[in-house]
Specification:
single chain, 344 residues, mainly alpha, Rhopdopsin 7-helix transmembrane proteins, two-stranded antiparallel sheet, 15 helices, 2 strands
């Protein structure tokens, strides 16, 4: 989960004197220079990667599986989330100059897209669980995907909008030209932040551990060349999620429960750094698909061929065909595994 409201720590940092050295000065430098740079890099790389995912799954794969639908929805949510980062980068480097109405829209849409991303990630997790562990019914499950796959995505977006209503209500432009949430009464902040942590971080994390534990047990009992690749994918997805999300969410929860940390400058610097890392999750997904997904790499080379940039396309395609031939010798459950896990 990415915490969207500008915390009190960050608001304090803006008021520090740049000429004063010490922890306050270092925190200010991080806020005014480190965050905008990280936001910009994340935005540019993330938009490029997620646009590529949408092109591949819409125009090359034609959304053939339920996983394809969910991945395209995830890329859409990540892309819309990334579009809010330039506004936040400008605010970090300067002030909020876009008005009160724009403040509510950006903060609200920021949270909508974040919820959509995390809920879709959870849907992908359960989709993989069913496809791999329920071999006898998974084919019927996949055949009915178009009847309710897009409907699930609509439900996810509607739920995300409802969950983000507090951001639309409480976001406002402050007296110092800052865009953040003002909670009245203050205890509402604890309730809303706790809810956001549960939906945006703990929920997906619990789902991943539960589902991927069952998936791992199934794959360990399978005998195929795909087993180790699939286990590697599971391990990579979980580790990346934990590394990018756990530090920031743990710090935010600590600060909300104990207000004394608001005056700790080292904690302020930790929030700024871990926030930037948490936001990187939106641009890391395309990289995961490319390095561990056979189908994604194959279609990437197709795009390069269509653009006249891939001279080695035929050789790579032959390699993919050889891999597909080997795949025909595996069991039914392992075929489903390869479809759901290794061909993202």
């Amino acid at each position: 989960m990415h915490q969207d409201n500008q915390t009190d720590q960050e608001k304090e940092i803006i008021t520090y004197d740049e000429d004063v050295d010490g922890p306050e000065h270092h925190a200010l430098m991080l806020f005014k220079y480190f965050l905008p740079v990280m936001y910009s890099i994340t935005c540019i790389l993330g938009l490029m990667g997620n646009v590529l995912i949408i092109i591949i799954f819409l125009y090359y794969e034609k959304l053939k599986t339920l996983t394809d639908i969910f991945v395209a929805n995830l890329a859409t949510a990540d892309m819309m989330f990334l579009c809010t980062l330039p506004f936040l980068a400008y605010q970090a480097a300067h002030d909020w100059i876009f008005g009160d109405a724009m403040c509510k829209i950006i903060r609200g849409m920021y949270r909508v897209n974040l919820y959509t991303s995390m809920l879709t990630l959870t849907c992908i997790t359960f989709d993989r669980l069913i496809s791999i562990t329920q071999a006898t019914s998974a084919s019927r499950y996949q055949s009915n995907k178009h009847k309710w796959g897009k409907g699930i995505c609509v439900i996810v977006w509607v739920a995300a909008v409802l969950f983000a209503i507090p951001q639309f209500i409480y976001s406002t432009k402050g007296n110092r030209n800052e865009c953040f949430e003002i909670y009245d009464p203050p205890h509402i902040e604890i309730i809303l932040v706790s809810f956001q942590l549960a939906i945006g971080f703990l929920g997906p994390l619990v789902a991943m551990f539960f589902c991927y534990t069952l998936i791992a047990k199934t794959l360990i009992n399978a005998s195929s060349f795909q087993k180790h690749k699939s286990l590697k994918i599971i391990f990579t997805v979980v580790v990346v999620f934990i590394i990018t999300q756990l530090p920031y969410n743990a710090i935010i929860l600590t600060v909300i429960l104990d207000k004394d940390y608001y005056v700790d400058k080292h904690f302020q610097k930790a929030i700024i750094i871990t926030e930037a890392i948490a936001y990187m999750h939106a641009c890391l997904n395309p990289g995961l698909y490319f390095f561990v997904g056979i189908k994604f790499r194959k279609n990437f080379w197709k795009i390069l061929k269509d653009l006249g940039l891939a001279k080695q396309y035929k050789e790579d395609t032959d390699n993919f065909k050889n891999t597909d031939v080997e795949s025909k010798n595996i069991s039914v459950s392992t075929k489903l595994e390869a479809m759901s896990m290794c061909q993202l």
